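Researcher: I'd like a candidate sequence for this fold, 209 residues long. If you have to choose between options at a position, lean toward the conservative one.
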């Protein structure tokens, strides 16, 4: 009986070592592949950002991360009632996507709402149409938005204590670059221009191919 327990313990330890070794290998490989492209550093590693999700798009359809992030994607967390930052950042991302299309590099701008109460699919659709026909808008329940936001370590806070209808939302303004099969590989701040973003994304896409 003691021997069986030792064998089981050794088997579990071996499995853990294999998983850790695989994670380290993937992290190191990603770093080597994209070393010439990457300019951002995040504690814990960019490759740990993101995770599975099921949300609702602007057409009212339930979609998964696999369906949405099926090509290089620029992911932004914001809300449609945002007075300036969100529309400007989202338009910048859409412009970068257009610049990449001119280079025959297909990418997708994705907007995930952090204000699901007001950002219904209908509202998101109107917002997306005003920005770009390529923009994918996503919303969901409060629990779903909390989960997907946390998976990208995105902070947001609704300031709706005094007025439940007319309020602002504090949120981070990073745009994340996601590559299918490689995960999150980079993020961009508000100071990055469309041309700079397009050059960076092209570098990552070419390095991954």
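Model: Candidate sequence:
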């Amino acid at each position: 009986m003691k021997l069986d327990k030792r064998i089981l313990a050794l088997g579990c330890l071996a499995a853990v070592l294999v998983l850790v070794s695989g994670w380290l290998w993937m992290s190191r490989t990603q770093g080597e592949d994209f070393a010439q492209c990457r300019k951002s550093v995040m504690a814990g590693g960019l490759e740990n950002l993101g995770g599975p999700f099921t949300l609702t798009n602007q057409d009212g359809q339930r979609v998964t991360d696999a369906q949405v992030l099926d090509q290089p994607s620029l992911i932004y967390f914001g809300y449609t009632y945002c007075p300036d930052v969100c529309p400007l950042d989202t338009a910048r991302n859409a412009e970068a996507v257009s610049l990449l299309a001119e280079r025959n590099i297909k990418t997708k701008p994705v907007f995930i709402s952090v204000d699901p109460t007001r950002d219904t699919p209908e509202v998101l659709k109107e917002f997306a149409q005003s920005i770009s026909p390529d923009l994918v808008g996503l919303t969901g329940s409060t629990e779903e938005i909390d989960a997907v936001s946390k998976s990208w370590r995105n902070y947001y806070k609704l300031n709706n204590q005094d007025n439940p209808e007319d309020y602002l939302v504090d949120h981070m303004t990073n745009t994340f670059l996601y590559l299918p099969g490689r995960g999150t590989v980079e993020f961009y701040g508000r100071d990055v221009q469309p041309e700079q973003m397009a050059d960076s994304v092209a570098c990552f896409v070419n390095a991954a191919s």
